[in-house]
Amino acid sequence: MISLDKIFNFKINDRIVVGCSTGPDSMALVDMLIKLRKKYNLQIIIAHVNHNVRKESVEEEQFIKVFCYENKLDFESMLIEEYSDDNFHNEARNIRYNFFDNVVHKYSANYLMTAHHGDDLMETILMRMVRGSNLNGYGGFKMIVDMGDYKIVRPLISYTKDELEQYDIDHNVKYYIDSSNKKDKYTRNRYRKYVLPFLKKEDKDVHLKFLKFSNTLYEANKFINNITVKALNRCLENNKLIIDRFLLEDRFIQKEILYYILSDFYQDDLILINDKHIELINNLIESKKANSKIDLPNNVIAKKSYNYIEIIRYTDVISNYEIEFDRYAMLPNKHYIELIESTTDNSNNICRLNSNEVSLPLIIRSRKIGDRIKVKGLNGSKKVKDIFIDSKILMDERDLWPIVLDSCGNVVWIPGIKKSKFDKKINEDYDIILKYN
To answer: Nearest CA to 68 among 43, 89, 85, 87?
Structure first.
């Protein structure tokens, strides 16, 4: 029998967000957590993404929503309305993990748990080996990843998919099967259908051998990483790689430096970057052109400017956003806005509104050409663009800076910068307090 508290050290009152697809793996994980809920007084939050590519998706979302209601679990969901990337799996994963991150912060959770298992690890390692990577990449993914203020945990990494499906049978756990998992057009499915059965026939515990292989590579990578960081400190200045210093390093360490920098842009278990991309960056470095750039997956670019290489995310692609505000909103600039009960703070990070004077719901979006705000204490209005200039906000920051409007399009607040005439003083009537963090 699988017992999670023998695998993972739970603490009393842990808050856990579970990424749940309604498949056999994630439903098994949810059932295991429910069985431990009373023992550790766990708060379990189910986060479900409707990928909107199968007709069964609506039924599955409704099932997990009712399941959460019946089992007294918090429930959060999102619908992916459209995709823009050529690689569906890559884009879907990015959207999914951004959503999970928002849910984690909304509930101040300790952990994000996913139902990745031993078969997933084998598939990932094999795909990385074929595509090319570095030691960290060849390791597949870790059981625990420290995200700073919370941890991603994959507690089922030492079990196979068959074992989890048997758990569901033994405990009468209902689940849904994703029909797309059988389609050969997806790379992972081909490994799952044709390569893993052969390996398991050779050794029924082969998944544990892959887990040991993964852990060994991560241990070796920790040692090499210490050397890489020291080399990186010699080569990096203001987040830019100094080419002539970089070229003095050992060729192997050069490659590790590039992977290390790229790791800031790509999640640990996402198969996006391989040797081909490292080669493209090396070609850029060695190019005789003084100014040039290359495109990398997920809107990341590497730019060369004389003796410098800079790797950045191309913000023009992600700068346009619009969020309907409820009680909490995570923003693309890594800040967030929340509804609070009270505060004595009167800075530009706080906005007090009277719901009788604005149209709800409030909308948070990126700036648009022609935006104007009726500034508090000023007759008439002022261009948002001019306020950014007066406040010396950098161009890149302006593209992602939140603008808060009511449903009629009135700009009610530029968080952290300027309040509108709709803002109320502490001694005035208001029933909404917003805080920008």
So the answer is: 43
Q: Quote the DSSP letter at residue 9.
A: -
Peptide bond into 361 cis (omega under 30): yes
- What DSSP assignment string belongs to 108-147? T-SEEE----HHHHHHHHHHHHHH---HHHHT---SEEE-
DSSP codes of every residue in 43-64:
EEEEEEEE-SSSTTHHHHHHHH
On whether the CB atoms of residues 333 and 411 are closer than 8 A, the answer is no
Q: Are 365 and 405 in contact (CB under 8 A)?
A: yes
pLDDT value, residue 215: 95
Instruction: Kindly report the backbone phi and psi dihedral angles of residue 164, in degrees, each rounded to the nearest multiple of 5, phi listed first.
Output: -70, -35
Beta strands in 174-281 (DSSP E): 236-237, 240-242
Residues 385, 279 share a domain? no
Of 315, 340, 355, the domain-final residue: 315
Q: 107 with 175, same domain?
A: yes
Q: Which domain holds residue 32?
A: 4-117+154-202
SS in 3 state form for 289-339? CCEEEEEECCCEEEEEECCEEEEEECHHHHCCCEEECCCEEECCCCCEEEE
Task: Measure the CA–CA gap between 353 and 349, rounded to whole angstroms.
Answer: 13
Q: Helix or strand or coil: residue 202? A: helix
Q: In 3D, which of 263, 279, 280, 423 has the Cα closest to residue 351?
A: 423
Quick one: 43 and 181 in the same domain? yes
pLDDT digits 0-9 by tens, 187-234: 888 999 999 999 999 999 999 999 999 999 999 999 999 999 999 999
**Amino acid identity for residue 249 in this structure:** E
Q: Is residue 217 part of a domain?
A: no
Number of domains within the chain: 3
Q: 85 burial class (0-12, 13-18, 19+ CB within 10 angstroms)?
A: middle
Q: How confident is the model at residue 271 (pLDDT cuts 50, 70, 90)?
A: low
Span 46-53, mean pLDDT?
85
Asked if 403 contacts 371 with a C-beta cutoff of 8 angstroms, the reply is yes
Instruction: Give yes or no for residue 87 having a pLDDT over 80.
Output: no
Same domain, 378 and 411: yes
- Whether residues 409 and 269 share a domain: the answer is no
Contact present, 358 and 412 (Cβ < 8 Å): yes
Q: Is 216 helix (H, G, I), strand (E, B) or coil?
A: helix
pTM over 0.90: no
**Residue 164 CB: number of other CB atoms within 10 A?**
25
